[in-house]
Write a structure and sequence with these properties.
374 residues, alpha/beta, Rossmann fold, 3 domains, four-stranded parallel beta sheet, 8 strands, 10% strand
Length: 374
């Protein structure tokens, strides 16, 4: 009997982890959906409600392309805002388009029901083993943590690499190696070896480079196609990038840190949905740690981030920290983004140079006065 085929929407490089997990816990063929292209967006726009947010359209278009490639099973995940309720609507849209498939929604009405998910996996594969699944879930959890740690190293250094493309090539090799992991200890060994390799890559980094923090809506932050590869744009200007949101944070850290954010941030008292409250706290952190600028990105119609933006602007005004806002949709112009990024870079570089001149002037002035006294 031919194996069933399973796929899922894209979000950064995390498809490597999802593919590894499902291949080891289910007797199915797992394949990555085709890369997101303009065709994907056109499909998502065509069958989505008009004023729904961009992640809904991107993921719906990816599902349609996966089903057109003979997928029998679609896995969807989301949560934290109204995106957590989108699975039901996307399933209804796809059923109305006469696709025959099994839909596994990991987040139903904003919550995860593990018993329900296990029952659905048992339907797909009667030999589904919970104990075996826990072991591979542990490996997948570690893999996510390791990938996010390496990404942090890359963001700090890729803008200063001596051999262009060296970080990207090594990351591709790492992901290919992770996808063929034989077990937990094999993964740990691979991570340690690759971490050494990344740290040994040749970079020419100044002692105090320009630093920019990226905050915003989680899908747009994590999916390079959704943010028009913003991080690489910044790297081209020799900027060190700080990004907070990743899957490790969302799954394993957010529920603890959000309480700390609400306690220590005077600007908010309640959760605002998705990452809005987190981004307010992150803005304060970036301002207090003297980052040269902040970039806030979101998809169009993202209600939580729209609510957070006035508070974020207030914090930036108090600390005199430059911030630029981007709202992305399917009609956003890449040329327009690059132009605004170039102008933002020119501004923060000019501010940095003016600050250095001011400090040097003070140093010369006070040293001259000291010399005159003697």
């Amino acid at each position: 009997m031919e194996k069933k085929k399973l796929t899922f929407p894209h979000m950064g490089d995390y498809g490597v982890v999802a593919k590894y997990l499902f291949e080891h816990i289910l007797n199915v063929d797992v394949f990555l959906a085709p890369p997101i292209t303009n065709k994907t967006i056109e499909l998502g726009n065509k069958y989505s409600p008009s004023f729904v947010c961009t992640p809904f359209k991107y993921t719906l278009g990816t599902m349609i392309e996966g089903l057109d490639n003979k997928a029998d099973i679609i896995v969807q995940a989301g949560g934290g805002c109204r995106y957590g309720y989108y699975g039901e609507l996307q399933e209804k849209i796809l059923k109305d388009l006469n696709y025959d498939f099994k839909f596994i929604n990991l987040v139903t009405c904003g919550k995860t029901d593990l018993k329900k998910i296990c029952d659905m996996l048992k339907e797909i594969d009667p030999k589904f083993n919970k104990i075996k699944s826990l072991y591979y879930l542990l490996i997948s959890k570690k893999m996510i943590k390791y990938m996010d740690d390496i990404d942090g190293i890359i963001r700090s250094n890729i803008g200063f690499e001596v051999r262009k493309g060296s970080f990207k090539r090594l990351k591709t090799r790492m992901l290919n190696s992770f996808s063929n992991t034989k077990g937990l200890f094999d993964l740990i060994k691979k991570y340690r070896n690759f971490k050494k390799e990344f740290k040994n890559l040749e970079v020419k980094k100044p002692n105090n480079p320009l630093k920019v923090g990226i905050i915003g809506e989680l899908y747009t932050v994590m999916e390079p196609f959704a943010n028009y590869d913003l991080e690489n744009m910044l790297a081209a200007f020799n900027i060190e990038v700080k990004r907070f949101t990743n899957v490790n944070y969302l799954l394993f850290e957010k529920h603890k840190k959000i309480k700390k954010y609400l306690k220590n941030t005077k600007y908010i008292k309640y959760k605002m949905g998705s990452d809005a409250a987190d981004n307010i706290a992150r803005t304060k952190y970036l301002c207090e740690n003297n980052y040269d600028g902040i970039i806030h990105i979101k998809s169009s119609f993202c209600t939580p981030e729209i609510g957070a933006m006035p508070v974020i602007s207030k914090i930036c005004n108090e600390y005199n920290t430059p911030i630029i806002y981007f709202s992305f949709d399917s009609n956003t112009s890449v040329v327009g983004i690059k132009t605004r990024i170039e102008a933002f870079y020119d501004m923060i570089e000019m501010r940095r140079n003016n600050e250095l001149l001011r400090r040097n002037w003070y140093w010369i002035y006070f040293n001259k006065r000291s010399c005159n006294r003697w």
